[in-house]
Amino acid sequence: ELRTPHHHCAPASSGALAFNASAQDSDAATPKAPECGQQEIGINLFRWINIDLQGQAGSRGDLRYASGLLYKWHCHRNVFRGGVDVLRNSYTIGTDLGGAANYPEGQGYRDGKSTDTRIRLGYERRFGDGRLQPYAGMDVGFRFFQDRYYFEGMGGFVYNPTSGTKTVTAQQVFIAPFVGLDYHFANRWSVAMELAVNYFSGHANHHSD
């Protein structure tokens, strides 16, 4: 699920593999789907994200820990859900040769931090009964992304490249179809593995300091 700051531009899509731990307000480890009204809250234990760099050297994967909360309301096999994710990242690209160094063309140095905040609502459909339950569905939401970095070169300059600080922001609507597998290992407790693909709309805004 995410974009991350290595790309100083908001991505068009990303894929995420998430592992969640959840607690239910009633016994969910029964052979039948829960009655209407059962509630569940979970935390994202860790998430591996593969980002589409929009032609910038392919793609890149990142691992994030404890990155969000997810609430679910069950009614038989139907589940309505909402969540908040906050994905932070610090990164360095290249080697700092100094502001007046001669970088090879197309290369340079970048050091920055990014924050990717997402609010989402969605629906999932459960399949099967018992402790192990596959499911599928879709989330829709809004994303605010900010990447602030110091750079040298990285603009086609060969001699005495420019340097400075830039901030990139993006406000985007997204959709995220997903599939998952939920395992109820004990009464009121479960873990889930979920694979999602995120599609973002909108464009990034670049600001130089």
Textual characterization of the structure:
The protein has 209 residues and is mainly β. 0% of the residues lie in helices and 67% in strands. The protein has no helices and ten strands. The protein has strands spanning 13-24, 38-52, 59-65, 68-75, 78-93, 108-126, 132-153, 163-186, 189-200, 204-208. The chain has an eight-stranded antiparallel barrel with strand order 1-2-4-5-6-7-8-9. Strand 8 and strand 9 form a beta hairpin. It is elongated, with a radius of gyration of 21 Å. The two termini are 30 Å apart.
Label this structure with key terms.
single chain; mainly beta
Give the topology.
Layout: E1 13-24, E2 38-52, E3 59-65, E4 68-75, E5 78-93, E6 108-126, E7 132-153, E8 163-186, E9 189-200, E10 204-208
Antiparallel strand pairs: 1-2, 1-9, 2-3, 2-4, 4-5, 5-6, 6-7, 7-8, 8-9, 8-10
Task: Give a nutshell description of this structure.
With 209 residues, the chain is an all-beta fold. The protein has no helices and 10 strands.
N-to-C span: 30 Å
Low-confidence residue ranges: 1-10, 53-59
β-strand amount = over 45%
Helicity range of the residues? under 10%
SS summary, helix count: 0
Strand order of the largest sheet: 1-2-4-5-6-7-8-9
